[in-house]
């Protein structure tokens, strides 16, 4: 079993933070800070540990926020030289961004400077949200400037920090209701040269689409006109939730239109399994149209829940292009093993093929108790 993430944020990390702060501010009470920050640390989860350390930082640093922020920035290590593979090392700075979010709201310029520095070493996507809530106009204006920053991590902060549904963070309710200010920023980043930034833009759009699918379709349709391959990749990633839901408008944006003349037949083996086992689904496709057909094929398995009701989960299978009269066979295994994220229950599980969003009944598998 993997070690919990919180265990990587321990007394050694606290001591390192204390030493870094004292190296640039000799008056920093390092011993008192370490004792304060480690007291009760082991009982807390990851984010609460970081918040606990941030509180100890507030008690140990100068009361003047601008001075405290200057010390924090001066203590930081080197900037990131890549966009992936950081592991847990960068979480050293999680208390620093919490410190800024909880203490810097009335000190806009000092806080922006601190977050600009921190996001080049970790990320300020969590702290910037507090400023978007408190002072949206000034914060959005600053993010517009940062969308042209030469540092890739600063540009990514613009798109990642404004995600309405950012994981591990409170939702930005105002942007869920009206995402237009966010879309203005994403327009600036849609053709960013770094895949790291474009993927963040796509994730933001995907968030927006969960609240306003019509708007997401409109934006992606417009962006797809004469789009280079890199932007089309962004659009495909942005539409993934709608595509997985079988939304035919989203599929049309990606070029998967029609498919009604693609004949689908399926076979399920075995038809009766126990919880913990798997079944194999084989689909035979035949294009009966006079023109080639671009199709995306998914599987919808209607899993039986604990209350006896069925709820569909969609599995990606394959995208392909069929010439007139061409046939193809594709297969997918579906596991009914128990997982922490999905519990299985006995019952008849209906299975459908989704061809460009069109549902075609394949059959069912009977699942009995393990």
Question: How does the SSE layout of this entry go?
Answer:
Layout: H1 11-24, H2 30-38, H3 46-60, H4 65-75, H5 94-103, H6 108-119, H7 128-134, H8 136-146, H9 152-160, H10 173-177, H11 180-189, H12 195-211, H13 213-224, H14 229-238, H15 240-244, H16 248-253, E1 262-269, E2 272-274, E3 278-287, E4 293-304, E5 310-322, E6 327-335, E7 347-355, E8 358-368
Parallel strand pairs: 2-8
Antiparallel strand pairs: 1-3, 3-6, 4-5, 4-7, 7-8
Please, could you describe this protein's structure?
This protein is 44% helix and 20% strand. It has 370 residues and is of the alpha+beta class. Among the domains are: 1-124, no CATH class; 262-368, Immunoglobulins (Immunoglobulin-like), CATH 2.60.40.10. Strands 2-8-7-4-5 form a 5-stranded mixed sheet, with no helix packed on it. It has a 3-stranded antiparallel sheet with strand order 1-3-6, with no helix packed on it. The radius of gyration is 25 Å and the shape is globular.
Mean pLDDT: 94
Which structural class best describes the helix and strand composition?
Answer: alpha+beta
Cα separation of the termini: 23 Å
The number of helical segments is 16
Beta-strand proportion: 15-25%
- Rg calculated over all Cα atoms: 25 Å
Helix content: 40-55%
Strand count, sense and closure of the main sheet? 5 strands, mixed
Strand order of the biggest β-sheet:
2-8-7-4-5
For the secondary structure, the number of strands is 8
- The low-confidence runs, each spanning 5 or more residues with pLDDT under 50, are none
Shape label: globular
Helix and strand run: HHHHHHHHHHHHHHHHEEEEEEEE
């Amino acid at each position: 079993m993997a070690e919990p993430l919180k265990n990587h944020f321990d007394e050694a990390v606290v001591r390192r933070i204390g030493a870094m702060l004292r190296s640039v501010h000799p008056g920093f009470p390092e011993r008192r800070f370490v004792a304060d920050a480690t007291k009760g640390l082991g009982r807390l989860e990851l984010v609460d540990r970081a918040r606990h350390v941030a509180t100890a930082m507030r008690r140990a640093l100068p009361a003047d926020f601008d001075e405290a922020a200057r010390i924090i920035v001066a203590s930081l290590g080197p900037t990131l030289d890549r966009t992936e593979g950081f592991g847990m090392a960068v979480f050293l700075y999680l208390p620093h961004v919490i410190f800024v979010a909880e203490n810097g709201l009335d000190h806009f310029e000092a806080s922006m400077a601190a977050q600009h520095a921190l996001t080049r070493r970790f990320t300020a996507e969590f702290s910037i949200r507090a400023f978007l809530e408190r002072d949206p106009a000034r914060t959005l204006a600053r993010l517009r400037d940062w969308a042209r920053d030469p540092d890739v991590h600063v540009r990514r902060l613009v798109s990642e920090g404004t995600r309405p549904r950012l994981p591990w963070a409170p939702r930005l309710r105002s942007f869920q209701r009206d995402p237009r200010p966010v879309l203005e920023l994403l327009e600036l980043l849609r053709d960013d040269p770094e895949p790291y930034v474009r993927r963040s833009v796509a994730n933001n759009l995907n968030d927006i689409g969960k609240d306003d699918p019509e708007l997401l379709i409109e934006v992606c349709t417009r962006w797809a006109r004469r789009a280079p391959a890199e932007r089309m990749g962004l659009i495909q990633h942005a539409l993934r939730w709608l595509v997985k839901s079988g939304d035919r408008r989203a599929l049309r944006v990606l070029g998967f239109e029609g498919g009604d003349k693609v004949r689908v037949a399926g076979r399920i083996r075995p038809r009766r399994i126990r919880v913990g086992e798997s079944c194999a689904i084989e689909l035979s496709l035949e294009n009966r149209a006079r023109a080639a057909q671009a199709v995306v094929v998914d599987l919808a398995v209607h899993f039986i829940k604990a209350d006896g009701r069925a709820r569909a989960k969609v599995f990606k299978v394959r995208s392909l292009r069929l010439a007139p009269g061409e046939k193809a066979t594709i297969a997918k295994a579906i596991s009914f093993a128990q997982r922490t994220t999905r519990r299985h229950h006995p019952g008849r599980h209906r299975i459908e093929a989704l061809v460009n969003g069109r549902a075609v009944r394949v059959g069912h598998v009977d699942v009995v108790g393990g």
